[in-house]
Structure formats: C-alpha cells, structure tokens
Fold this sequence. Notes:
The structure is a single chain. By secondary structure, the chain is an all-beta fold. The protein is built from no helices and 15 strands. The protein has strands at 2-3, 10-17, 20-21, 24-25, 28-36, 41-42, 47-51, 61-64, 70-76, 79-87, 90-99, 103-109, 113-114, 121-122, 125-126. Strands 2, 5, 6, 9 and 12 form a five-stranded antiparallel beta sheet that branches. A four-stranded antiparallel beta sheet has the order 8-7-10-11, with no helix packed on it. A hairpin with a 2-residue loop joins strand 3 (20-21) and strand 4 (24-25). The two termini are 22 Å apart.
Amino acid sequence: MRTSLVSLGVACFVFGLGVALGGRVEAVELHGRVLDVLHQRGVPGLTVRLTPPRGSHIPEQITMTDAEGGFSFRGLSRGPYLIEVSQALQPLYRQPIELQGDQQLEIELRAKPEPISPPPVSPSGPLPPK
C-alpha cells in the first residue's frame, strides 16, 4: 500500500512575531514547519501560501518548505490571513489565522493509505500493460 501526500499526516507549527516601538508597529514574521506526523519528520517541497483578506493592499506570499519542512514569511502586517499548504495542485491544509504577535498554531492531518486499483481484466483474462 502506498501513502499519498494528498492525505499525508501533516503538522504545521506557526509562530508570529511582532514588536511595537514608539507607536510604530514593526513587521511581523511568520515561521513554521510542516511535519509528517506518521514518520515524525519535516516534509520538504510543499507550497505554503499566505493570503491576506480581500480588499487589503497586502500582497499574497508563497514559499516552499525546505529540506526539514520549514518555511518563513517576513515583512507581514498584523491581521487576518489564510494559510494553505499544498503539494502540486492538491490542497493538504487550509486555515484562517490571525497574526497578532507571539502565537503558535499546530495543525495535524492523519495519513490514510491510497487504494491501489487492480489491473483491468477482459473476459479472456488480464489486459497487457500499456
């Protein structure tokens, strides 16, 4: 049986950091890690998308997880965002978050085996591979 990353166990640890100094708000940084819960290791090569609310003047940001499943976004404003994790075009996780400063968000999805289809069969027996 194979395990598909489409339904991979994922834990995503998110930290938002920001500081207000003299009435000015410094940019917030968002750091996280996507973790395969089943194997307890980071998942490299996943797309992480951070989308601000519609109508805001904040651009959407996209990054990829590194070899240990880590990712970072810098220069963010405080406020609501949508964070999404995907592999190719297959979504794995989608959750609204609120960046206000030191915070942690843990996301866990459980892996499930991907069914393997039996080879096609004709009335006279199995079909030859293509």
